[in-house]
Amino acid sequence: MNRPDIFAHNANEWKSRIANAHTIMLITHVNPDGDAIGSLIGLLSALPQITNARIIPVIQQPIPDYLAWLPDVNKSIALDANSTWPQPDLIIAVDCASSDRFGGVHAKHRDALQHTSMIQIDHHATNTQFALQNLIIAQACATCEIITEFLPYLGVTITAGIATPLLLGIMTDTQSFQIYDTRAETLQLGAKLFAAGADHHQIVQKVFRSTRLDALQLATRVISEMTVVGPIVWAAVSQEMLATHQASDDESDEALQMLQRIDGFEIIMLIKEREQGVKISLRSRNVVVATVAQKHGGGGHAHAAGINLPNHTIASAAALLLPDLQALCTDSSASTNRSA
Question: What pLDDT, on the 0 to 100 scale, is given for residue 178?
Fold first, then answer.
């Protein structure tokens, strides 16, 4: 089924559920990135065109500094164990591959989530189809890309206030249209959002040209201590590094961006030490790292995936994942040789 047919098929169900809801909760994944917050804020700005329902945007803290400037992001709330459940009639989940990625909301309000109608829109190939209505397009570069295409089917006119967070989400998930899966249609959607009045200048300044010196110094240290294992480059960000350089967790992603620029390697892995366990980011040029992520309880995109390992250290996580990543590269090389 092509995209117009998918959108037309889903639009009536979405319209009906939105029209019958008095309170709508918008939710995305824990540790939100640009696509997650762009999707949520984009819908927050769009839904009033088609409903008078009360809209509750839920974003788990902390919100990264490079996203905190977005209009209406300050209207969001965080739900934890001490929060009163707001009794929504409908939950719309965005950019979230599984319900356990809701973080504290899933852990502390699981029963309420299970007894509330939920629909979702997402682009992760590893999505578990956890909602009643699942609008999943894995070929899309960003959830914001899907929302940009889908909103007109719901009767929404994309204004400048809607266009800015949606363009931000597309630009962050495509690294300014650089990732290999970027399609001509993605660029056309970006142009559509430009024409609608998206604040491209602000996005560029806040997201791509506002790195603090401390974060750059952290990235330099991370790269200086990186390890090469055949076609794999991996590096680590410890809590000590963050403290020494007075950098935030999301600022350490600057190191990941720099590692991806190294030519000649198939897989990049960054392991971030958390207060409990580690978070792993995987990036690849050709092989599908999402398969390794799924094996270890993570998920994501074919060439950009992540894993949370709450019971591992940096060293044990590297020992666990490197054999699988090396095997992935070996299998890919053997397949290429056979096809040649």
Answer: 82
Which CATH number characterizes residue 167's domain? 3.90.1640.10
Comparing C-alpha atoms, which of 97, 95, 245 is closest to residue 166?
Answer: 95
Do 197 and 268 have their domain in common?
Answer: no
Torsions phi, psi for 26 (to 5 deg) = -100, 135
Among 208, 225, 242, give the residue marking a domain's end: 208
| Average pLDDT of span 239-265 | 92
* Residue 261 amino acid letter: R
pTM tops 0.70, yes or no: yes
Question: With the C-alpha atoms ordered 279, 140, 177, 180, is the resulting torsion angle positive or negative?
Answer: positive
Task: For residue 85, give the DSSP letter.
Answer: P
- For residue 233, which of 273, 260, 272 has the smallest C-alpha distance? 260
Residue 143, classed as helix, strand or coil, is helix
Q: How many CA atoms lie within 13 A of 57 on its CB side?
A: 24
Instruction: For residue 267, give the 3-state DSSP assignment.
Output: strand
Residues in the chain: 340
The pLDDT value recorded for residue 193 is 98
H-state helical runs in 225-280: 239-245, 253-259
Q: 141 and 197 share a domain?
A: yes
> What band does 126 get if pLDDT is binned at 50, 70 and 90?
confident
What is the tens place of the pLDDT at every residue in 157-198? Answer: 999 999 999 999 999 999 888 877 788 999 999 999 999 999
